[in-house]
Amino acid sequence: MTGQLAFVESPVQLLNVLEWAHTRTPSGPPGTAAGGTPAPAPGTASDTTPAPLTVVVLSPTDPMSRGQLRRMAQLARDEGLTVHWQEARGGRGALVRTLRRLAGPLRSAERVIIGDPFSRYVQLLLTLFGPRHLTVVDDGTATMEFAAQLGRGERLVRWHRKGSLGPRELVLAPVTTLARRRLAPARGRTVEVFTSLPVEAPAGVEVTANAYAWTRARFGPPLLTGGADLVGTSLVETGVVDAGHYTRVVGELARTHGATRYFAHRRESAEKLHRIAVETGLQVVRPELPLELVARRGPVGRTIVSFPSTVVHTLPLALAGTGVKVAVCEVAPEWLRATASPRAQGFLSGVTGTAAHEVDRLTARRTPSVDRLGFG
């Protein structure tokens, strides 16, 4: 088998495929790989010219994700990658057309790279064609949950979902079960997790650190502005956090830290963003690229405040040496909706607690009239 094939469904996945490819491209002084990491020992499989990498974009439907993916695809082409745009969700027959088009490349791929092991689309592809070598790159903090569930031998369920199986999950259960086996190392199959997150690797899984070397080499350093920038989250849209609590806390953070801009998550609703702009006075910005690239290119505030999410792990790496301070605001139990998954509080606390030591923790202190936030 020859070649490497990456499936991406989000801008962040494509960014991390670029970061992974960068670490496989020899550069710099002899004896180092890209990013200054030690080169593979002579005679190993990685001591040869990397196999060609083709990226297949399984296009989502929401306009903001599609726009960011279009721009990321062009960056990937500029780096010499082959990128195919596949309308995988483009109406009736799209699934069948996609499978027919990908059958040949999948069978011949030496390595398959995916960004979301919880994706039903990716799981279906893995049940039909089991790769010899599999790499999972980050697409948010779900990488931590994936590694934990794989290590415990559990079925793959997103952390914000309820544990019970609905009708759709029951129908797809055989697909998920087989995909979970294909995502685990076995005789004749290696599994790598390429991540910037603190994960505990199951036995047999190789973990490779993502230091955002490509991002730092390609962009910046940024011009720093005064004050702070806030980073939005889709915790309201996923049913985890109460919308009223969220808007009030965003306003309090803006006043406390002198923030003027709010960088929206690509899944945040227009109604919610309008409410934030009206009630807090923040300028809502819809980034055209993943936040790691936006921040690295600048201009950016001297402090970036985020709720528990991947960026509290990735931004300190992407912005290393720039003087930008990253802070994470913990999610208090009273912010959670009654319908939130029982695992939500523990998972979000874990994201905050495992953030890099360079990240400041903000704690919520409940008073009778208002949620106060300060440095913990």
Tags for this entry?
376 residues, seven-stranded mixed beta sheet, seven-stranded parallel beta sheet, 14 strands
Compact description:
The protein has helices spanning 11-23, 63-78, 94-108, 120-128, 142-152, 167-182, 213-218, 243-257, 270-280, 291-297, 311-318, 344-353, and strands spanning 4-8, 53-58, 82-86, 111-114, 133-137, 190-195, 205-209, 224-231, 259-263, 283-285, 300-306, 325-329, 360-366, 371-375. The protein has 376 residues and is α/β, with parallel strands linked by helices.
**Strand tally:** 14
Structural classification: alpha/beta
Distance between the termini: 53 Å
Low-confidence stretches: 28-47, 365-376
Largest sheet: 7 strands, parallel
Word description of this protein:
The N and C termini lie far apart (53 Å). The chain is globular. Helix 1 runs parallel beside helix 2 (63-78). It has helices at 11-23, 63-78, 94-108, 120-128, 142-152, 167-182, 213-218, 243-257, 270-280, 291-297, 311-318, 344-353; strands at residues 4-8, 53-58, 82-86, 111-114, 133-137, 190-195, 205-209, 224-231, 259-263, 283-285, 300-306, 325-329, 360-366, 371-375. With 376 residues, the protein is α/β, with parallel strands linked by helices. It has twelve helices and 14 strands. Residues 28-47 and 365-376 have low confidence and may be disordered. The strands form two sheets. It has a seven-stranded parallel β-sheet with strand order 3-2-1-4-5-6-7, sandwiched between helices. A seven-stranded mixed β-sheet has the order 10-9-8-11-12-13-14, sandwiched between helices.
